[in-house]
Specification:
about 160 residues; mainly alpha
Amino acid sequence: MPLDRFDCIIELAKLSIPIIKLFKLFFKKLSREGMNNKKSLKLPLFTQMNSNQIESLSQSAGKISGDLSELVRLLTQADLTLAREPNTIDNRPIIKIAGRLPTHFDGPLLSIVLYIVPLIDPLSDQDYYHTWFVTWNILINSAIHNFLQLARTFD
């Protein structure tokens, strides 16, 4: 049985929860406390990253936070709109915001894996962080994909 528009908005809200939690987990892991949680793990104060890569990494949290806030606002607005006018909802802004989330983390994630993870000593810790970031990337892309698939079902 296909979902009606109201149920679709509820399901989109549910599908946004893993996206929000995964981004929170990512930035917590990337923080000094997350990367240096082991006594033996100390990152150097330098890297081979260029200024643009460092700036992109530093701005990614703000961009992602802004888009997630906007996504929650759009879902709330859609819910309120459907309560008044059951057949009027514009899914394009929701799709646009969710669709651009990967653009905010693809570059920074690549920089982390290429420039920061190799600085970690010992090698077993490098393997752990590399695997963690790769797994996180798969999970966040799957969560965004699932969200977008449902968002595209109503227009």
